[in-house]
Known about the structure:
This protein is α/β, with parallel strands linked by helices and 504 residues long. Helices cover 41% and strands 20% of the residues. The strands form four sheets. Strands 1-2-10-7-8-9 form a six-stranded mixed β-sheet, sandwiched between helices. Strands 5-4-3-6 form a four-stranded parallel β-sheet, with helices on both faces. Strands 12-13-11-14 form a four-stranded antiparallel β-sheet, with helices on both faces.
Amino acid sequence: MLEDTVKRILKARVYEAARETPISPASFLSKRLDNRILIKREDLQPVFSFKIRGAYNKMAQLSDEQKAKGVIAASAGNHAQGLAMAAKLMGVKAVIVMPRITPDIKVQAVRARGAKVVLKGDAFAEAAAHAQELIEAHGYTYIPPFDDIDVIAGQGTVGMEILHQHSGRLDAIFVPVGGGGLIAGIAAYVKYLRPEIKIIGVESEDSACLKAALDAGERVVLDQVGIFAEGVAVAQVGEAPFALLRELVDEVITANADEMCAAVKDIFEETRAVAETSGALSLAGLKKYIQQTGVTGQTLICINSGANTNFDRLQHIAERTELGEQREAILAVTIPERPGSFKQFCKIIGRRMVTEFNYRYADPENAHIFVGVQVKPGGEDRQAVVQRLEESGYPVADLTDNELAKLHIRHLGGGRPQEHFEEEVYRFDFPERPGALINFLTHLPADWNISLFHYRNHGAAYGRVLVGMQVPNGDRVHVEEYFDAIGYRYTKESDNPAYRLFMA
């Protein structure tokens, strides 16, 4: 299979639509990380993503009869744009089924390239099911996003270009992983010619389907998939990619949302390009690899796989970069409620910048403050701050890794009820579409009272919503049955220390 894949890569027809993208040196990062860091610029493709390679190569293999019937795909992002452009260049009718929550910028980009867009469902699974219905009704040819050997061969030209452009020492290539098409193509070509080069996959920690498959020895379906990095939000690695990757990939690293945001900033500072979160994923993994292994003097390449991000996501990304670089600690500190307490607190933390401070009077004896403190990367300095505060008699809760605190509490600190009551608190992912809120409220029993609600738009397909509810005692054991019927992803937060300290 490996030799056949390499032959397909060598014969792949991609350059009628795609371009050979450059490798940019990351000078500032290289100096900071004591390794030579290079970035493969797939964000410079005509559709701002590598996906045009696989889509065009797959279409180039179709018969005239298949082309005459038209092509179809279910996609919420880069594959849709790649297929739309490929079809336009070949003069083939293209239909793209997209979830209704797809950001308008992506819908308009697909339409601008001549494809017909059908909006269906609130999730990819519903869009994919509808695409199959249209295939049965009209005979369209399905163009898969990753689970196809010709798609893999088209993506594999990225690896061919890397070895052509960089003939010197190369220690590792870091590749973002969703369904596995890109890394399978790169791994096949690179390992066939230069097996000493490590191929390291990088996945979002909440959609790590390749890592799960390698650990299990077979493909598995994840119970839940996070959607922060939408471009790699896949529940199961493809069958064709996994047949290659189980033998060729050297390691899989996972990165979290904050680490991806920090990598977006790094790429901007190096290239002035604004990567999407999944586009910066491989750099986040590269940085983590250096931190975990302590390697120096190596040559490491990462793939900036795409730049199709919404402008209104940038504020949220910017908020999280310092946390991703481990240069900020988010702490909940209890201090005496008396004049001069804040001044004394600042003396204890020393000559450090306070990056955030939230407080509102709530108790005559003690004050709970939500504070951001600048620290040095690595974690040791953060622990030193916590230890110094505790030694000075201040109770401290480290909220740096607490999603509820970072998404909601920092914007709500101090808002407390004036009297005690019991409430159930949950964090939801609402689809970003009209009617999502009323659908949620309609499914709740009429005697439930909404006691807390916080939402911020982050420019993503899903909105992050925090909801507090006063629930009659008889319904408490059935709360999550109601939520399951709604179908929105949720997490219980009633016992989260950030909520208990600042909102309860």
